[in-house]
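Predict the holo structure. Ligand: EPZ.
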Amino acid sequence: MYGLNGIKITGGIPLQGEVQIQGSKNAALPMMAAALLNRGTTVLLGCPKISDVFLMEHILNHLGAKTCWKGNTLEIHGGDITTFTVDEEAGSQMRSSVVLLGSLLGRCQSAAVPYPGGCVIGKRPIDLHLDALKRLGAVFREENGMLIAETCGLQGAVISFPKSSVGATQNAILGAVCASGESLLLGCSKEPEVTWLCRFLKAAGAHILGEGTDTLRIRGVRELHDVEFQIPADRIAAGTYVCASAITRGEGVLLGAPIGEMEALLWAYGKIGGQYRYNSGKLTLHSLNATKPVQLLETQIYPGFPTDLQSVFMAVLATAEGDSCIVENIFEDRFKMVSQLQKMGALIEVCQSKAKIRGNSLTGARVEAQELRGGAALVLAGLAARGETYVENRHFIERGYEDICRDLSHMGARILKD
Ligand code: EPZ
């Protein structure tokens, strides 16, 4: 199999060994956007070196912010913002550039962002973002494919979200923390990445009450001050490596896994026969008996089973001894990797938001990653498959995993970039 920006895996090896869990992609990105609200220095410790972070860094540099890395520490100097227009080429590659709306409006009273791109997992509209920011006093228009936002100064408001949205909640928070007056946000997403953003903002001087709940009270401040903040561990990367242990019926020790944010995944891991114990920062896995199917697994908003682990858990269930069913309730098109798993012998039938999976043994094949978490699922399937698997389009996986080959090699996998 030839080099094509891919990953080559030799399957059939039960994993073991230790892996350190990286910093959270979905916590880091909004904190980087929030750094625009501080004219001084923001220091993010334990920042994951992934392409989405480098892309956001490029966007911040283009806006005039200075950045520098020292190991996994990212320093952002927000003093000289020279434009409020997000670089179109970079911004359109990554959906999370849309949260720059809130921080640019708070800093510059204007923002111009390209309509957000991102993974192919669904339409991914931004109506909830726009409605929330309009409530704070922003007006929007479209010009040559760019979304232009303006305000004569954001004002505190009551914002009620009709449905849970991580990004829209984060955008509203970023708009409210430096607005004048009080804001009340109802129906907020309770995903850990929202709670962590609130903790970060409070450490930088914001006045926020209610983090971790669906109701946030925010009193605007003039601007944020310098802060040094430890980015939390990535619960989705940790869940991915739990599934890697499970699919190979191996063992494994995860260091620094955010166990308190992984209850739904660990419940599912126990359902299939996985056993684990946790002490002093070590999550020890025993997956010898992780062979059972799950009659029904539904993705839900936090603290339910995370949509971001649906694909990788499907790969595990594709090797179970029996029939399982997964229902994807968050995104309308998140079964993209099924056709690729079927190339490896997976017996999966999809009907709208439901996937029926009959456990089977998998055989190595050449498959194509088409988005971040589906790509990770294909790598995991390769760990269990007989023979060699080649996963093309490694760049999708590198959006969210610092080095999946390094991490899985630490767990004993035969895997390499090719
Ligand atoms: C965040 O995306 C994450 N991305 C996603 O992770 C994650 O899957 C998702 O939250 C759900 O947990 C980042 O944090 C960068 P949403 P986001 O707004 O904010 C609909 C990964 O793999 N919706 O909570 O875009 C939307 O279409 C990525 O790391 C609207 O209808 O997710 C979806 O069906 C993939 N209107 C649902 O809400 C809006 O204005 C949840 O989306 C916004 C969203």
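Residues 51-63 form the longest helix (13 residues). The chain has a mean pLDDT of 96.
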